[in-house]
Structures are given as structure tokens and as C-alpha cells.
Amino acid sequence: MKASVTKALGKGFVVEEIDLADPIGREVRVQVQASGLCHSDLSVATFIGGEFPVVLGHEVAGIVTEIGPQVTQVKVGDHVVGSLIQYCGACTNCLSGHTHLCLNPDATLRTAEQAPRLSWNGAPVAQGMGLGGFAQETLIHENQLAVVPDEMPWAPAALIGCGVLTGAGAVLNSADVRHGQSVVIMGAGGVGLNAISGARIAGADTIVVTDVEDGKLERAKAFGATHVVNSRTADPVEAVRDITGAGADHVFDFVGIRPVTAQGMQMLGKGGGLYLIGVGTNDAGIDVSALTALSNSQRVQGVYMGSSNLKRDIPFYASMYLQGRMNLDGLVSREIGLADIEAGYESLKDGRTARVVITDFS
Q1: 182-186 and 206-211 as β-strands: parallel, antiparallel, unpaired?
Q2: How many domains does the structure of the chain reveal?
């Protein structure tokens, strides 16, 4: 099969013919129909590193073509969406419903003694995040897959597994935003746009979005922001306090730069929460005054994957989309072929581009 292989750090994405093993245990063979380009994969390929060679791509949607002998949750012909949340289903965190905090995520992978899922010229190829969606086909543990309705379009479906879970989940799961509350979303990229959608579903009364690019802010309005602030030309803290009156109930930081995070803390009202999702620099973080946090009963919380349960949340977001209650089409700015990944990532530098999705695997 064809797959885009990253052979070493900084060596880009090269289409090669590689071999895919037959499914064993709880593995599911998926014919990939769409695979989103997420910055996390680019970071692995360019500066974070890991196992090489590797097939990356963790926003995957496709059709089940074969299942392992122990699979019980999906069947051949199902339309599925993959997620990088890997969970065993048996640890204390999984059993308490917090599968995104699984203590044994490697249970979804093959052991070192087993033949690799992917190989190239007889040598093993790593599979990024247990998914490896930059390929015509892939093998995925059933715990990393959720079934969606057949009428769900492929390109927006693929984006649910990461960006939608993270953005909307931060609002609905991590913060548990309630109707009538005020929300501030710092950063109007693809994940921030999904936070807007989550805030609308939750019934937030005020949804303020801050960014430094007017094009992104205009798109935020189209997604449902009630107010937008260009933090390059206006003081965002002052603007948020003018809009909310007493400060925001919830502030979501999708930027992850120390000065921006500090502004988020200053935007909070009494009892408010600051949620840290983006990591834009190596020194991302915040200094918190214990006295201020105590006297105002404020909190700071790190958020991973929107505190999501993928089996519950992926079908929910698909349902919201099919009911016309969630904008996923607006996320898909461009569809590309498997050989065009590097050009696709380059196009994401343009603020007018929300997300890019591979839909041509020929």
C-alpha cells in the first residue's frame, strides 16, 4: 500500500510502498478515506522527533475492511473515526470514565515480541500515535476507534478525532460550561474554532475570541463568536472586562505563550477558571498569585484532549453536525492528495486556512 513515510527528523514526508500486517487480537483494518493535517504531526517530523521511519497522521476516518478475532466494538463496513487517545479499559482511570488519562495506553499497541504492523523493505516502520493515517490503509486497536453514521462526510469526520475533541471537549467536558455563562477563547485557529462550537452547544451567553489576525477573527464570527478582539491593536484584558462587566467565567488558552496566558488569568471573574490547552513555546506557563486565586476562588487547569471519552464524544459531535448544530464544514479549507502533505502544511501558515485534509490516496 502507499503511505507517506517520514524517514528521519527534518526529512519531510515521502510516499513509499510499504507493507501492512493482517489484524490480530483487537486490531481493525481501516481503508483510510480522510486524514487531517495537524501541527502535532509536523512537530514530530521537524523538531520533537521519535521513532523513525514513521507513518504519521492521527486524524483518521475510513471504512472497516477487516477485524481481528477479538474485536467486538466494530464490524466490517462500519464508518469509523480514529483518535490519538489510547486507553486500556482496565486501569482505575479508565474504569472511572477518564479514558484520556489511561495509565496503560501501550495496551493498544503490539508488543516488541510481535511482528510490526507496518514494514518497509523488511524493516519495521513506526506508527504515529497508534494510528498512522497518512496511508491508504492502517491497523488500529478498536479502543481508538468510534463508529459514526454512514452519511457523515469524510473530511469533517476526520477532524473530530483530535481538533474537535480538544476544542469542544475543553468547553463541554473540562470546564463544564453552563448556559448563560461567559467564555473567552484565546486563539482562533482550528482548535479554538471548535471551542466556539462547544460554547454554543453549552448555551454560553457571551463568547469572546481574541487573536492577532483579523482574518481569523472574521472566521470566528462565522462560527458564532459574539465578540472578537484583535489583541495586537487593543488591550484584550480591558476589552474582556468591558464586555463581561465582572470578568469571564471561563478562559481557554489555545496559544500557550506566557504573556498571553497571564492575560487570560487577568480576564477571570470571581470563581472563574483558566484552561491551558495550547503550548506555543518551550517556556509556556504561568505564575499564579496564591492570594489572588484564593480570594477570588479561581482555578488553573491543564486540559488534555478535551477530557474526552472518544466512544461517547465522537458520535455526539457527528450527531451535532448532522443536525446542523455544529459547524465542521467551515474547518475544511483545502483537500489534498497523499503526496501533497508538505505543501498542505505550508498552506496552514496562511491565517485564512483553517484545516487541510487528505482525501485523495491514489
Answers
A1: parallel
A2: 2
Range of the domain at 134: 2-148+328-360
Cα(362)–Cα(353) distance, rounded to whole angstroms?
24
Backbone dihedral angles phi then psi of residue 120, each to the nearest 5 degrees: -140, 120
Q: Is 356 part of a structural domain of the chain?
A: yes
Cα–Cα distance for residue pair 120/53, rounded to 1 Å: 9
**Summary count for the chain: helices (H), strands (E):** 11, 19
Residue 42's φ and ψ, nearest 5 degrees, are -65, -40
Dihedral pair phi/psi, residue 284, rounded to 5°? -55, 140
Short-list 210, 286, 288, CA closest to 242: 210
pLDDT in tens, 278-336: 998 888 999 999 999 999 999 999 999 999 999 999 999 999 999 999 999 999 999 99
pLDDT in tens, 72-123: 999 999 999 999 999 999 999 999 999 999 999 999 999 999 999 999 999 9
> Domain for residue 310, yes or no?
no
Q: Taking Cα atoms as reference points, which of 192, 183, 168, 158 lies closest to residue 306? A: 168
Q: Is 330 helix (H, G, I), strand (E, B) or coil?
A: helix
From 191, 51, 212, 48, select the one nearest 118 (Cα to Cα). Answer: 51
CATH (domain of 88) = 3.90.180.10
What gap in Å lies between CA 319 and CA 302, rounded to an integer? 27
- Residue 149 sits at the vertex; the CA angle it makes with 135 and 30, to the nearest 5 degrees, is 25
Cα 80 from Cα 33, distance rounded (Å): 10
Q: Does residue 314 lie in a domain region?
A: no
- Residue 161 maps to a domain: no
| Among the listed residues 202, 193, 213, 170, the one whose alpha carbon sits nearest the alpha carbon of residue 304 | 170
What phi and psi, each to the nearest 5 degrees, are found at residue 84?
Answer: -75, -5
| CATH number of domain containing 223 | 3.40.50.720
8 lies in the same domain as 144: yes
**E-state strands within the chain:** 2-5, 14-17, 19-20, 27-36, 54-55, 59-67, 79-82, 118-120, 123-127, 137-141, 145-148, 182-186, 206-211, 227-230, 248-253, 268-276, 299-302, 332-337, 355-360
